[in-house]
Amino acid sequence: MRFEEGSAEVLANSMRTLVAGILCVLMAGQPVVAAAGVSKPVAASTQQIQGEKRVLHALNRFTFGPRPGDLAAVQAVGLKRWFELQLDPSSIDDSALEARLEMFPAMKMEQAEMIRRYPSPQVLRQIIARDMPLPSDPVEHAIYADEIAFYKAARAKQEAKQAADAKGDAEMMSPTTAKDAEGKETAALPGDGVDPAVPAMATHEEQFYSGLGAVKILNLPPDERMRRILAMPPSELIAFRKSLSQAELADVAEGLSPMQRETLAALQGSPRMIGAELLQSRMLRDVYSERQLEAVMTDFWLNHFNVYLKKNQNEPYMLPAYERETIRPHALGKFEDLLVATAKSPAMLMYLDNWQSIGPDSLAAKNGGRFAQYAQNPQVKQALKDRGLNENYARELMELHTLGVQCEVSADRPVSMLDRACGQGYTQQDVTQVAKVLTGWTIDQPFRSGGYQFEPRRHEPGTKTLLGKTIGESGENEGLQVLHVLATSPATAKFISTKLAVRFVSDTPPPALVDRMARAFTASNGDIKTVLRTMFDAPEFWSPEVYRAKMKTPEEFLVSAVRASGADVKNAIPLVQSLEKLGMPLYGMQTPNGYSWMAETWVSTGDLVSRMNFALGLSSDRVPGVQTDWTRLLGPTKAGMETAALTQGDAAEAKEAKLEMLLLGQAVSDRTRSTVLQQFQNQGMQQQAEKDFSIRTNDFEPMAQVLNPAALRQTGRPPLDREAAMMAGLLLGSPEFQRR
């Protein structure tokens, strides 16, 4: 047995080495990746890419990657016309995407409505602590009652454990230590990041739902089935849900409306349901939207104005509106409008703590003294600690959102001599003044309605001076004045233009191109469309040196692979999980600087092996809920010649050549082609890839089955062409596909 186990481990290690070795062979002699991070600045070239390469270049830079047929479609419309249409997303029919997103009604709700219908853990704790009545609406009542039942069960289990631990440790603890240990833990709620305990089942409940009782409910008509479920007492509902397999869970959701399915998912925990819908809807938009430039620019600004999903339990409730109302409508508009929208966004106000900021001399700060007598109370002590000027947002507003990195200013280094990459030369005093200007910009009832409001009582009175400008006392208008100054600064024009050029052109964009883009930014009052047109019309953008020279980020790689394969995504959660394994989870950057667009961040042997493993899993239908159809895409192997008439070698070469054009739009190197043809029958490598990059079900998976039960039953599944799948996986993992 030990010998067999050792042999299996040796084999697994050999397969991992093989995958890495294949990648090394593919990368050898190719200007992939390693070189991309240290490339020299691109100079303007008298030559420009033409023909199909020109169209492919535009598709690779202004979309998340071309799909089969996109090249011909753009050629038919004309490249310039296509680009102008993409700059005007409202002119593009996106109804097919919207039909896919119908399964996520919460993503279209106003923030206050979503928070009311699907309570956060904070809301539930308030209801329990204050013994507040539950909503009268039967649907909302069931959601609240079910989640409160989870909470109380978890609390009871926790208290029992604490009592047992205290009894066991009593002889080892002094009375003082025991007293200090009281109340150290708080009971979990659904969405707290831990699995809530399930209350003990009564014997009759277990028997009922393990047999005919569950079957009887499953066989009810959809509306009656939903009414029966909502009418269950919380303990009965928990027992019923626990009795269901994943297939039966899909049966429960079968025939229900999107809102009913969403309600059913919320009964398992509103925060997880909101998070699942948020991540799935963004992934599906990136993959399927016809308004690809809008999707790409939305992604760019979500990264530029980064908000971390796990900042606290309330951010998931604020991010749908942040993307839908703050970022996407302004993604191709005026930068100042976008800047103001983000400054007022509850998601940003909470992420960078400006909602808690209070002016030192404001009325709210002065009234805080009346709580001094209660300062020993831990809750009051924490509240008093939070009451004060918070500079987090002001600092990131200047350093990351507008002016750029702060440079040291001294007598030996005046502002006029600042390096090109530096900002305007602001100081810590400027940061403090901006923070004072923005006091009072807060959130109205953050755990209830969650909308922006200006609170005059929190605002710091008096005149402020920053960046050499005097801002007279005018309440909320002070903040608008400062945002205007920052949005129209030449340093901001240079900073934003540089980031756009790095995203779309090169890791080291030509200074002349950045200068032209910055001038266009200033002349147009920060119109993003004008800046993008300037870049599109620039000879540097079409230089042969930048063609396929940008390394894809994990998000760009994954989405482009799904698009290139023509896959049908029934359940996007496994793709979301895959992206996390590739190191770039959606809304997952904890620090406010966002993810890097530079190649050096994403290049290592381990990163590339993970990409290859994902590609092999995707192409072989090993990613749950995602289905390819290589037979349909390939069609006849050669015009006028049946596949059966070809020799085995000729048929493989013809299939591989067609896949090259389908997936990349152009031929790959001889080295890549040779490797693909040598390895496409290596099923051991595909099996090891599946093992190393397996997607396991987690808390999101049962919800995905409820939100879209069809994902579990992919009927009419076409037979898998294993040869084509293996070839496609190797091509999607190749160095050529890693570049855009």
Top keywords for this entry?
mainly alpha, 3 domains, two-stranded antiparallel sheet, 39 helices, 56% helix, globular, disordered N terminus
Task: Tell me about this structure.
The structure is a single chain. With 740 residues, the chain is mainly α. The protein folds into three domains: 2-30 and 551-738, no CATH class; 51-94 and 329-550, no CATH class; 111-160 and 189-272, no CATH class. The chain is built from 39 helices and six strands. Helix 1 (2-27) crosses helix 32, helix 4 packs across helix 5 and helix 30 packs parallel to helix 32 (605-619). The two termini are 49 Å apart.
Helices and strands in order, then pairings?
Elements: H1 2-27, H2 33-36, H3 51-62, H4 70-77, H5 79-87, H6 95-101, H7 111-117, H8 121-130, H9 138-169, H10 175-181, H11 203-209, H12 212-218, H13 222-231, H14 234-242, H15 246-253, H16 258-266, H17 270-288, H18 292-304, H19 315-327, H20 335-344, H21 346-351, H22 363-367, H23 378-386, H24 392-402, H25 428-437, E1 441-444, E2 451-454, E3 464-466, E4 469-471, H26 476-487, H27 490-504, H28 511-523, H29 528-536, H30 554-565, E5 568-569, H31 573-581, H32 605-619, E6 626-627, H33 630-634, H34 648-664, H35 670-679, H36 683-692, H37 700-707, H38 722-732, H39 735-738
Antiparallel strand pairs: 1-2, 3-4, 5-6
Helix pairs in contact: 1-32, 1-36, 3-4, 4-5, 6-17, 9-14, 15-37, 16-37, 17-19, 17-30, 20-26, 24-25, 27-28, 28-29, 30-32, 32-36, 32-38, 34-38, 35-38
